[in-house]
Design a protein that fits this description.
Number of helices: 9
Distance between the termini: 37 Å
Largest sheet: 7 strands, mixed
Strand content: 25-35%
Structural class: alpha/beta
Strand order of the largest sheet: 1-2-6-3-7-17-8
Order of helices and strands: HHEEEEEHEHEEEEEHEEEHEHEHEH
Number of strands: 17
């Protein structure tokens, strides 16, 4: 089997055996099996999924991260784990780079981080807490990009993601009979007020941001009961971390005001906050050199700025000295990320693996 065939076989396996965040048990076991077959040293963890592998030698460490979890979403009428964000491709590309580099002689260590739970926004923190980036000077990521961001066969040396945060809330009012609304505290009225409130959040028109309700549940099967209880979720995003933190403070203040207005209790918790990108010029430059060496100037595109988010940037927030950049891959993607029918041209995966391998070679020679 050629390396190209092997990369596509790995992709097909992960695509057809998708697992959601923190439950990537079979995925981790498959990764461990691949490391055994490749003769590569690796580490798994007793308390979380994911795997870290290493090649080369030396105290200085260069690292690359692939996320391994899938989304839980409805596909053709049935809910299932689904790799509609392309993490199956990310694993295959990074494994391809590992297979290409494993027998070369490096005076630095190259670490391959297969990280769980990116979709939950806290997988990166789990890896940091378990030493995955200890000693690392340069960290690279990789991700497929939608067609509107990168054409097929094009590569970007860095992706500038925005910041994102997610809130889950509950409204505690009072149920009432449909004929006697004055005896209750209607949670749907509160939900409507929250929706209207979100449309009153403004920042400079020169800033990129959005905030919206993404989940609402109120009431049961009986149509003559006014529900006092409801749950909701809010997705808030901004290109800058500073704007996101301002939005968080404003949301909490306005939720408290709505609770007082309707005389109900509103409880909420932040599920996670994913920071915006902190791209290091040096890391982006190394990525650019690797792209040019591998596929030439015609395939190189400028750095991508996107409103999406990724917990890859938790690494640089937690470790400010880390020089990091995420490489974007144009794969002819249709439907877009997180669409249940997202698809792309898998023929790009072997070429992207070679790009990643060349970037890592350049990084081992830096400094």
């Amino acid at each position: 089997m050629t390396r190209e065939q092997q990369i596509l076989e790995w992709y097909t396996h992960f695509h057809t055996h998708a697992e959601v965040s923190w439950k990537e048990i079979k995925t981790t076991n498959k990764l461990a099996q691949i490391m055994e077959e490749l003769g590569v040293r690796y580490q798994t963890f007793d308390d979380v999924t994911g795997l870290v592998a290493e090649i080369g030698q030396g105290e200085e460490v260069i690292a690359i991260r692939a996320d391994i979890d899938a989304l839980w979403q409805e596909v053709n009428g049935a809910f299932q784990a689904n790799h509609s964000c392309g993490h199956d491709a990310n694993m295959a590309m990074v494994l391809g780079a590992l297979a290409e580099l494993k027998d070369e002689d490096f005076q630095k260590t190259i670490r391959f981080i297969f990280q769980p739970a990116e979709e939950k926004g806290n997988g990166a923190n789990a890896m940091i807490d378990r030493g995955a980036v200890d000693g690392v000077t340069h960290l690279f990521g990789v991700h497929l990009r939608p067609a509107e961001e990168l054409d097929f066969g094009k590569f970007s040396p860095a992706i500038h993601h925005g910041a994102a945060m997610f809130l889950k809330g509950k409204i505690h009012g009072v149920d009432a009979h449909g004929a006697r609304p004055h005896q209750g505290k209607n949670a749907i009225d509160v939900i409507v007020a929250i929706h209207q409130m979100l449309n009153t959040i403004y920042y400079s028109p020169f800033e990129s941001y959005s905030v919206k309700l993404t989940n609402i549940h109120a009431g049961g099967e009986s149509l003559n009961i006014i529900p006092g209880q409801a749950s909701f979720a809010i997705d808030a995003r901004a290109q800058k971390n500073e704007v996101l933190h301002q939005m968080k403070e404003q949301l909490e203040r306005k939720l408290r005001a709505i609770g007082q207005q309707f005389d109900v209790t509103i409880d909420w918790e932040w599920q996670d906050i994913t920071p915006g990108a902190e791209v290091a010029d040096e890391a982006a430059s190394l990525a650019r050199e690797g792209i040019l060496d591998s596929v030439g100037d015609e395939a190189l595109e400028p750095e991508v700025h996107t409103s999406g988010s990724d917990d890859f940037h938790c690494y640089t927030v937690r470790r400010p000295d880390l020089k990091a950049a995420m490489i974007g891959v144009g794969a002819g993607m249709t439907h877009g990320l997180h669409h249940p029918d997202m698809s792309f041209d898998t023929s790009i995966l072997p070429e992207a693996s070679r790009v990643l391998a060349q970037v890592l070679r350049h990084a081992t020679k830096s400094g």
